[in-house]
Amino acid sequence: MDKVKQKDLILYSGLIILGLAAPFLFPGFKVQLTILCVLIVLAMTWNLQGGEMGYNTFGNILFYGLGMYLTASVQVGMFFPLAEWTESGGEKTFVHTTSQYFQGMGVGLLVAALVPTIIAGAIGYAILGLRGHYFAICTLGLGIAAGEIAGGIEIIGAGQGFTTPPFPKDIVDPGARGDFFYFLSFVLLIGTFVFIKWIYGSRFKLILNAIRDNEDKAEAMGIQTMKYKIVGWMVSAFFAGLAGGIMGGLIGYIDSTDVAFDGREMGVFMVLMAILGGKGTLWGPVIGATLFHFLKEGFWTLILGWQYVALGVLIVVIVIYFPEGLMGWLREKYPERFGEVIDEKDRKAQVELK
Amino acid sequence: MVQASLDGILLGILFALIAYGMALQWGVMNIINIAQGDLVILGGYIAYTMYLAGIHPAWGVIVSPIIMFFVGWALYKLVINKVVDRDLFISILATFGIAIIFQQLMNFIFGADVVVAQSEYGTTMLFDNSVTLPNSKIFSAVVSILYAIALVIYMKKSRLGRAIRATAQNARAAKILGVDTEKVYAATFGINAALCGIAGALIAITLTLHPYVGLPYTVRSFMIVIVAGLGNLPAVAISGMGLGLFEEFADYILGTEFRIGAVFMLLVFILVYRRFKLSKKREYLK
Fold first, then answer.
1. Do B272 and A264 touch (CB under 8 A)?
2. Interface with A, mutate which of B92, B95, B279, B281 (most A CBs under 10 A)
């Protein structure tokens, strides 16, 4: 047992060192690495619903987009009138000082984490009572409705979009912006991973799995399934909101349907990444997101113009031929590695029985 | 107000046609096709292409379903047959992928501009010119109703129609009794695509086309089907018109920019309402 723990320790410390060193090793790919962190966070939080709870949501994009808008709005609104900011397209008339920028970002991220969590709790009772594909379609509708409605609200830029505050000019180091967002997202990634790993070792995860396997039976066993479903969704909303906030600052520009509530891209990506890696596993979404990001960045430039066609084909192929994902495939091949002990004696006994 | 009501009802008939296709494939094959709306738009682009070629786009309501039937058939053979017996979520995701492919291909072929095929049917003025009614909308409503009636008769009388209904009732039993379910599924999907083709051609004349507006049509038809139930044609027609009315009034009261948002919010509200109604009996939507 100790040996396994030691192996884990080496693995985790290795990954953390790699994560810390990454922006210095590949300074040209800082933005990509930041996006990778955000993608992993989104895939992991999606996995909590789609993989562990059996509730295939398209609606986590709602929290991501909300987080994005909230962070930017708070960051601006704390110091300047929001309406004038969006009207002028940002930067021209108002300039954040360095301390204002970071204060705004901090408070904004806090709001971006809390408000989606509260919203998830508030709508959870209504939405999570739906099952199966009704839940999937309902959350799909929710995400798109949010995008359409955000695109009609004047104060956050409506259809023209919302320019997030630019990184303070006082910081002369040209790499500072990339470093800041990278480490912010990296910290978020570690936080998410640690929290979800903790969930994986807890009773909570078993209850979520019970809900996935048979919700009626779980309820009959005395589990208040609704409570756990809502808490699960709130956890996802918390981290997805933070991820959205960071992403908004990184991109520097928020559009209602193309960046924030981007059901066509991000909303599908998170599902796809989790399925690609193997839903219902701790490492699956991490591996899936990494693989997906590499594939995407590798091919996106090669097949210019055909990206979405490739994406569509990828979705169809993955969903039809690899619904269990990479981890599922590995699990089938090497069950011992996953702690599924095959008792030889037991197996022999069963054979003899026949 | 009268304007909005009339527009809504005429539009609703069109939605009902798409929803009928949705109900058909849902009932028979137990799949939810997210690409439904994109099939509609593709059908519309077929009519638009004819319009560009100098043929009157109204002929699209005959040509487009024929082409779309084969598109649907091919789609079934390529992808859908692999998701029929599986989890509904797999069909949702797979058709989502198809929807993305369709959108992008249409974007390549037809460009990202909003287009409309001019039918030049003129408009009818009603009530002392206070209400304008494009004749193309009346035309589209009439064509939709005719096709719907034709389809109902076909489903009742023809051999294939009976086979489809038998498969919907019990696929296994139908198979044992000698129905080639694989063929029935392919035909069902083809018919659904053809219905989308008709609706698309009508949309090309009456409304506008754009490669990325497919999803709202999918959601509308989904909504109509869950309100009306599977295989209940009068209810589909009524809820289709109801949705059309709702949409026109949402447009009228909230403004055009919130129209699509209102449609999606209505979907959420309907589902949540059904959920609360059923939870009183400790049941859930199945």
1. no
2. B92
**A110 interface with B at CB cutoff 8 Å:** no
Instruction: Name, in order, each residue with C-beta under 8 angstroms of A349's C-beta and a sequence gap of 6 or more.
Output: none
ipTM given for this complex = 0.81
Mark yes or no for CB contact B79/A316 under 8 Å.
Answer: yes
How many interface pairs between A and B have CB atoms less than 8 angstroms apart? 129
Q: Which residues of chain A lie closer than 8 angstroms to B256, CB-CB? A: none
> Which residue from B79, B86, B264 is facing A144, i.e. has the nearest CB?
B264
The residue extents of the domains of chain B are: 2-259
The token pair at A153 is: 């609200």
The pLDDT profile of chain A, 354 residues, written as one tens digit per residue, is: 455 677 778 888 888 888 777 777 777 777 888 888 888 988 888 888 888 888 888 888 888 888 888 888 888 877 777 766 666 665 556 677 777 888 888 888 888 889 989 988 888 888 887 877 788 888 888 888 888 888 777 776 666 777 777 777 777 677 777 888 888 888 888 898 889 888 888 888 888 888 888 888 888 888 888 888 899 889 889 998 998 888 888 887 777 777 777 777 788 888 888 888 888 788 888 888 888 888 887 777 777 777 778 888 888 888 888 877 787 777 777 776 666 666 666 656 555 544
Q: Can you tell me the distance from the alpha carbon of B103 to that of B138, in angstroms, rounded to the nearest whole number?
A: 29
Probe site for chain A from B268, B269, B277 (most A CB atoms < 10 A): B268
- Tell me the residue type at B52: L
Q: Residue B95: closest CA among chain A residues belongs to which residue?
A: A316
- The closest CB to that of A316, out of B94, B222, B285, belongs to B94
Exposure on the CB side of residue B25, measured as CA atoms within 13 A: 35
Q: Are residues A130 and B257, on separate chains, in Cβ contact within 8 Å?
A: no
pTM for this predicted structure? 0.83
Structure tokens at A248: 């908004």
In this structure, what DSSP letter does residue A168 have? P
Dist CA B276 CA B280 (whole Å): 7
Q: How far apart are CA B7 and CA B117, in angstroms?
A: 19
CA distance B16 to A353: 60
Token representation of residue B99: 């929807």
Residue A224, φ and ψ in degrees, nearest 5? -80, 85
C-alpha distance from residue A344 to each of A1, A291, A336, A338, A347 (Å): 20, 35, 12, 16, 5
- Contact between B247 and B14 under an 8 Å Cβ cutoff? The reply is no
CATH of B2-259 given 3.30.1330, 3.40.50, 1.10.3470, 2.40.50: 1.10.3470
Report the residue from B93, B279, B286 with minimal CB separation from A129.
B279
Nearest in space to A261 (alpha carbons), one of A65, A113, A66: A65
- Interchain pair A315, B100: CB under 8 A: yes
Dist CA A244 CA A107 (whole Å): 14
* Partner-chain contact A133 B268, CB within 8 Å: no
Tokens read off for A149: 């409605």
Q: Calculate ∠ Cα B55-B59-B62, nearest 5°.
A: 140
Q: How many helices (H) and strands (E) does chain B have?
A: 11, 2
Cβ distance B94 to A131 less than 8 Å, yes or no, reads no
Chain B residues whose C-beta sits inside 8 Å of any chain A C-beta: 32, 79, 82-83, 86, 88-90, 92-94, 96-105, 108, 215, 219, 222, 226, 255, 257-258, 260-261, 263-265, 267-268, 271-272, 275-276, 279, 284-286
